[in-house]
């Protein structure tokens, strides 16, 4: 389920290619959060996922929402300064390592040898795939912003897992994403939303909000109850794998040797951690 969620996230970049020209990435991200947050909250309410008398830890719930907003804003800002290749590699590639460290500190969930090997293969593959045919350039502030994005997503994963111990997945995602949606509302008030009136813009907004947000995070929350934080974070590297394959086969980008090697390494890492997780220990199922 975590890998399926990552595949959904991997369609984000391809969907943005079909958005009308001139759309602001921050506005697209805000629209995605608002649409997805509303759907997740309504879905949770319809399923009766919120129970009377539930004790929601206020600070942790707010932290989950803030960390998701932080990830989006820091990631887009980092990519704007460093370029897609470096920003994506640093932001997404740093997440499994940071999440593994946080998972150990918070849950004493020590990553196993399968995680270490799979993460190394996947991060190297991610770097080859993203940088294939791209001109890399460094910007210290941009790199720091991208690392901040990776850290924010790692925090979101760890905090969400803690909330999932006592609350249903739909309730956790619905509440945290609505918090995030409220936080990003000013971006919608200040930004240009004329592109949403365009049929292509509507299709992009709905795809991003429904598929890459509401549906994907519903899967992610359910999968996160069954696997460790470190494993879940590494499996999310299926996102750049999907994006790379779509860019080659759907958008017609150049099929380079570096891209092929990167895809094979990424795929190998994901397969290894999936089967290594099952062989090394039982899933962390809620008591």
List the topology elements.
Layout: H1 2-9, H2 12-17, H3 25-46, H4 58-82, H5 84-107, H6 113-131, H7 140-164, H8 169-190, H9 199-224, H10 229-235, H11 238-249, H12 257-280
- Count of helical stretches: 12
Structural class: mainly alpha
**Average pLDDT over all residues:** 82
Radius of gyration: 18 Å
Morphology: globular
Approximate helicity band: over 70%
The helix/strand order is: HHHHHHHHHHHH
Q: How many strand elements?
A: 0
Biggest sheet architecture: none
- Name the beta content range: under 5%
**Multimerization state:** single chain
Q: What are the segments in which pLDDT stays under 50 over at least 5 consecutive residues?
A: 280-287
Q: Could you tell me how far the N terminus lies from the C terminus, measured between alpha carbons in angstroms? A: 20 Å
Would you give an account of this structure?
The chain is an all-alpha fold and 287 residues long. The protein is built from 12 helices and no strands. Mean pLDDT is 82; it is low at 280-287.
Descriptive keywords:
287 residues; mainly alpha; 12 helices; 77% helix; 0% strand; disordered C terminus
Entry summary:
This protein is mainly α and 287 residues long. The chain has helices at 2-9, 12-17, 25-46, 58-82, 84-107, 113-131, 140-164, 169-190, 199-224, 229-235, 238-249, 257-280.
């Amino acid at each position: 389920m975590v890998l399926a969620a990552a595949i959904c996230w991997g369609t984000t970049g391809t969907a943005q290619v079909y958005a009308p020209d001139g759309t602001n990435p921050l506005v697209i991200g805000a629209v995605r959060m608002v649409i997805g947050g509303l759907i997740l909250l309504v879905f949770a309410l319809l399923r009766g996922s919120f129970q009377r008398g539930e004790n929601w830890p206020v600070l942790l719930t707010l932290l989950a929402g803030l960390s998701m907003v932080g990830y989006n804003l820091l990631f887009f800002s980092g990519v704007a300064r460093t370029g897609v290749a470096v920003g994506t590699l640093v932001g997404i590639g740093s997440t499994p390592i940071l999440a593994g460290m946080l998972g150990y500190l918070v849950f004493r969930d020590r990553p196993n040898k399968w995680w270490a090997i799979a993460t190394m293969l996947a991060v190297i593959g991610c770097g080859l795939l993203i940088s294939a045919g791209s001109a890399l350039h460094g910007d210290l502030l941009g790199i720091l912003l991208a690392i901040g994005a990776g850290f924010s997503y790692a925090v979101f994963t760890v905090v969400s897992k803690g909330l999932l111990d006592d609350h249903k997945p739909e309730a956790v995602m619905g509440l945290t994403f609505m918090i995030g949606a409220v936080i990003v509302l000013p971006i919608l008030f200040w930004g240009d939303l004329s592109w949403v009136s365009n049929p292509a813009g509507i299709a992009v907004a709905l795809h991003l909000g429904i598929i890459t947000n509401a549906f994907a995070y519903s899967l992610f929350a359910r999968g996160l109850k069954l696997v460790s934080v470190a494993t879940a974070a590494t499996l999310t590297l299926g996102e750049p794998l999907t994006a790379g394959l779509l860019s080659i086969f759907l958008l017609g980008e150049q099929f380079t040797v570096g891209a092929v090697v990167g895809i094979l390494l990424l795929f190998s890492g994901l397969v290894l951690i999936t089967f290594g997780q099952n062989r090394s220990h039982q899933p962390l199922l809620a008591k």
